[in-house]
Design goal:
The protein has about 70 residues and is of the alpha+beta class. It has one domain (about 1-70). It contains two helices and four strands; from the N terminus they run ββαββα. The chain has helices at about 15-30, 60-70; strands at about 1-5, 5-10, 30-40, 45-50. A four-stranded antiparallel sheet has the order 2-1-3-4. A hairpin with a 2-residue loop joins strand 3 (about 30-40) and strand 4 (about 45-50).
Length: about 70
């Protein structure tokens, strides 16, 4: 899952996971974040997080560009 300025991309994300991802981003004051999660049944486990995002994904690159343009 990738977070860009409060927007999440990747996979089927349930509300609780989305809320936790946003809280992690806010708590660390990070606007670009890639998170690795593991899902088993209805449970989701946090594996890792990194400030590096895959800008080769068009939706991620577009979101970064929109965020930078909005910050002007």
């Amino acid at each position: 899952m990738t977070l860009v300025g409060g927007r999440l991309f990747g996979g089927a994300i349930d509300e609780n996971t989305e809320r936790c991802a946003l809280r992690l981003s806010q708590a660390t004051n990070v606007e670009l974040l890639t998170m690795t999660l593991a899902r088993e049944g209805s449970s989701t486990a946090f594996i890792s997080a990194s400030p590096w995002v895959d800008v080769d994904r068009p939706e991620v690159a577009d979101a970064i560009l929109e965020r930078w343009e909005g910050a002007r």
